[in-house]
Amino acid sequence: MARNLYHKVSLVPTGCLGPCQAGANVLVFPGATLYMDVQPEDVDQIIDRHLMAGEPVTEKLAPAEVW
Fold first, then answer.
1. Where in the sequence is the domain holding 39, given as residue range(s)?
2. Residue pair 11/46 in contact by the 8 Å Cβ criterion
3. What is residue 63's DSSP assignment?
């Protein structure tokens, strides 16, 4: 809300996406990029780097064998 991203971002609550034992997950479309063990302090970085700049936050990406 603070960044006025209403026309760019939609938050959709889901059930478990698979690796729930690894903490909160965030799935970004398009591209089906899955972030694992997302903490509140990671959210700004995901917004800034991935959603705004198009660069995934590699240190939070789910490994290929999980997703």
1. 1-24+35-67
2. no
3. P
Residue 29 in domain: no
pLDDT, tens digit, 9 for 90 and up, residues 18-56 = 888 888 999 999 999 999 999 999 999 999 999 999 999
Cα–Cα distance for residue pair 57/33, rounded to 1 Å: 10
Q: Yes or no: say if 25 and 36 are a contact pair by the CB < 8 Å rule.
A: yes
- Residue range 1-21, pLDDT digits in tens: 788 898 888 989 998 888 888
Q: Quote the CA–CA distance of 26 and 40 in Å, as a whole number.
A: 11
CA-based nearest residue to 50, from 9, 6, 22, 4: 9
Beta bridge pairs of residue 61: 35
